[in-house]
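Late entry, evening session. Most of the bench is empty. Finally got around to the prediction I had been postponing all week. Sequence below, unchanged from the version circulated by S.P.
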Amino acid sequence: MPRFISGSRDGTARIWQFQQTEWRSVLLDMSDRLPSSDSPAEEDRFMKPKVTMIAWNQNDNIVVTAVNNHLLKVWNSYSGQ
């Protein structure tokens, strides 16, 4: 099933898929952190994360997002985890 991804300066990306006559999306929030992560970095308190680039891996199972705070985030393209 065809899918596409969009990224935004609001700090989110969405993986879109057309299902049963409507577009549905999986939300990727750049402010999400791993459960084991410490509190947000000092710079995150002053700068809202924004998506700067997005890419799929070779078989479309993984999405990589680049964020304006110099982080790369790797996401499962089906679950958004």
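Two things to note before I forget:
The chain has one domain: 3-76.
The beta strands are 3-7, 12-19, 22-29, 51-56, 62-67, 72-76.
Will write this up properly tomorrow.
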